[in-house]
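Input/output pair, single chain:
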Amino acid sequence: MAIGAIELKKITDSVWEIPKTGDMLVPGRIYADEDSVKGLLRDYEDKKTGGFTPALKQVANVACLPGIEKASLAMADIHPGYGFAIGGVGAFDMARGVISVAGVGFDINCGVRVLKTPLHRNDVEPLKETIANQLFRDVPAGVGSTGEIKLKEAEIDELLVKGSAFVVDRGYGFADDLEYTEERGAVADARPENVSHRAKERQFRQVGTLGSGNHYLEVQWVEEVYDQAAATAYGIEKDQILIAIHCGSRALGHQIGTDYLKTLEEASRKYSIPIRDRELVCAPINSDEGRRYLSAVNCGINCAFANRQAISHLARLAFARVTGIKPVDIRLLYDVAHNTCKIETHTVDGKNKKLLVHRKGATRAFGPGRDEVPEAFRAAGQPLLVGGTMGTASYILRGTEKGMEDCFGSAVHGAGRALSRMQAKRQWRGSDIIAELREKGIIIKTRNKSDVAEEAPGAYKDVDSVVGIMHNSGVNHRVARLRPLVCVKG
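Output:
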């Protein structure tokens, strides 16, 4: 299929390619079915993308960045973002490659954490209204919300280095939570001196807060298990109650992105890097600017892990108050990020090579046998936590060997938007969505009904189709489908 200056070549029923042309150093590769491709091409032609550069053009632009390896990738939840398409993955050679704010995003380490309870759907259905109210009271949410952890600057520097362990040491959760958090809840080479005072100041009172927008705290039940062996390894079963937390580094991460957008814009000019989209400004990985930004991103990653760890503690206490189970009986399944750039080892042309992998709205999805995956999951592969919508479903997937070979061990992170936030607000009223979902047995608690309109289920792609594309491609495999009972939003 082709339209204008963009051509898409069908590789398989689930994989399409933008051939390498012009300044592209590698091809673009998109995980999509025929209907998705038609939509992407239509958006490219009509430019109806909420003011963003069309997603296919963004994939092609990323393919022009110095040092990119194999392909500019887009997962099945692809939609336009700042510079990189959301769902975009780009891996860069450490010596020749670049680092870009657009490849990470402004909500550094926005991610999903899932807790597993010993309860089942029939235990919770009679209590879900009370559970919803308790979670809404106990977990701070919304724009400008503040948590019970109040930090001084020296303490926030410590948090930016230690990540989850910082709050675990203060009694927020359990030591074995770290085992089931990506990177054990902290990446190395986090340097607080490369994070502005303004960024730290914005975070002093926000640790343990959910935020707003598409962030949520959701009580879910396991509707269907597809892969029994992986589900057993992960400790989940049909009808089990899970608690999902979706949020990131809050104001600190956003400020880091804002600060370094200016720094990398200057670096792009300094190092004569051609930029095809102003949001794609970047610096060589090994430049002073590149190293400083990467260390600041690492601080943001650790901040977000700590934030989700603190929220987990509050959610456990709230759930325990209503159901009578002990907080220690609510175990962490896994916590995985989807807005990061990290140094990882991957096979390129038959050789192991260190690369800087940007995942913008894409999840790390390591396959079986990788040392980075918790030992209990190593035979199955890493769990992937895919958020859907508050009115449909979410998924647990697993990483595969094919995913390691084809897309640097990456996965979808959610359903992916079909409409911009402004388009959604014009089409739906938050109060109507809340009422409709209540009729379906799903309770929504929110401090801002306009956020509910922006996140209306109809504003997103069909999560079943998105997950089906990835499963059929072989790079991610379905393990379980989850349905919401309660959703708490900012």
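The first helix runs from residue 34 to 46. The mean pLDDT is 93.
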